Amino acid sequence: MKYSLLTGDNIGGIGWNLSNALGNLGCSIIRCSNLFTELAGKCAEYKPDALVFFVTSESEELFSFVDKMVSEYPNMKIFVLSYVKSFQMRRRFEAAGITNFFLMPDLLSEICKYIVIDLLPADEQHLMLDIMSYLGSKGISTLNSGFITMCIAMKLCILEPGLIKKITLRLYPCIAEELGSTPESVDQRLRRFSKSLNNNGVRFKQYNGKYPVSNSRMIKLALEEFNELYHSYTE
C-alpha cells in the first residue's frame, strides 16, 4: 500500500500540511515547489504513483503542463486542488482525463481520505471507505498518525478473520508489509492510537472496563461495532 506521491507546496503552506497528512496515511511523500517546471522534473526523476498540485490561476502554461503529464505518465494519478472557480478550466481537465478535482478551500482530512481511497485497488476501496467512515463517526480524524494503521488492521482482520487471534505473529507483519514499516513500529503506532482514543474520550459501547485498552482488545471491539453497522462484510 506504500504509494509514492509528488506534492506541490503552495504559498500558504497548505501543501506542506497536506503532505504531512498524506504521510500519516501511509504514503511516501516527495515534496517540491508548485512550479510546473519543478513538478515535471520531479515526475521524470521519481516516477511517482500520483501527483498532487495546486492551481492558483488559469493559463495556457497550466494546460500544457497537464497535457504533458497525462501523455508522458498515463498510469500516474493526478489530483488538482484549485483556488480558481472556472467551469471552462474544469472541462479542459476532464477532456484530458483528469477528474480528481477539488475546489479550495476544502476540508483537508476529506481530501486526504479521497486521495488514499482512490489509490487503492478497486476491490479494497469500498471496504476501506466504510472503515474510515466508521472511525470518523467516532470522532477520530484521518489526520491522527495511527489512523491508517488501525484501518489496515481492521481491513486485514475482516478479509482474514484468523489474523485477530495472532496479532503479533501474523497481523503486525501483514500491516508492516503494507506500510513499508516493521512489526515493532506497527505495535507502537497502535499503542499510541489507543492512548489517543482514551485521551479524546472515545469509547466502545460493548466495553465498560479500563481504558486505554490493549491493541488486540481495541481491534476486536472496533470490529464488533463495525460488523454491527456493515453486515455485508460478514454475511
Outline of the structure:
The protein has helices at 14-24, 36-46, 60-72, 87-95, 108-119, 122-137, 147-159, 167-179, 183-199, 215-229, and strands at residues 4-9, 28-33, 50-55, 77-82, 100-103. It is α/β, with parallel strands linked by helices.
What does this structure look like?
The chain is an alpha/beta fold and 235 residues long. The chain is 55% helix and 12% strand. The chain is built from 10 helices and 5 strands, in the order E-H-E-H-E-H-E-H-E-H-H-H-H-H-H. Strands 2-1-3-4-5 form a 5-stranded parallel sheet, with helices on both faces. The model has no long low-confidence stretch (mean pLDDT 92).
Question: Which properties best describe this structure?
Answer:
alpha/beta; elongated; 235 residues; five-stranded parallel sheet
Count the E strands: 5
* Rounded average pLDDT: 92
Placed side by side, the strands forming the largest sheet appear as: 2-1-3-4-5
Number of helices: 10
What's the N-to-C terminus distance?
26 Å
Strand content: 5-15%
Secondary-structure-based class equals alpha/beta
Please give the share of residues in helix: 55-70%
Q: In one word, what is the shape?
A: elongated
Radius of gyration: 19 Å
Low-confidence stretches: none
SSE run: EHEHEHEHEHHHHHH
Biggest sheet overview: 5 strands, parallel
